[in-house]
Amino acid sequence: MSVNSTCFNDARNAEASHVVSTAMPVVKTGVPDTPLVAPKHATKRKVDFVPLEDEVRLYLPTNEAAYHLGRKPQTLRVWSCNGTGMLQPIGRGGRLLWPVAGIKALLLKDADKAKNKAADKETAHMKDAKRDA
Hints:
- The chain is mainly α.
- It is built from 4 helices and 3 strands, in the order αβααββα.
- It has a 3-stranded antiparallel sheet.
- Helix 2 packs across helix 3.
- The longest helix is centred in the C-terminal third of the chain and has 33 residues, at 100-132.
- The chain starts with a helix and ends with a helix.
């Protein structure tokens, strides 16, 4: 940088600071101590879902159905697209609606499977104990 360009930049900066100081008071910039609105990524919306046994609607939107099934909403959307799910929705107005009765039946079926699996383990354990004795 040459001497002339440095002097020119200093003169321009001096003029600019003069304009700023006479036009408006200087406002301190930087991060405020308390933000007026929390950043969108910093807050997670807590949603309280109605328990399935208290649900009065016949169909649930994807997010609520996924919550009750213990799946991610995208998993249910894949079930719908591929037609390869344990449950199939109906489409209304560009949205997927999942039948509450189907969700309840699916959860009961899973609970019965878990109960039968536990009973099978118990009988296998009893047979092993008899055989060892």
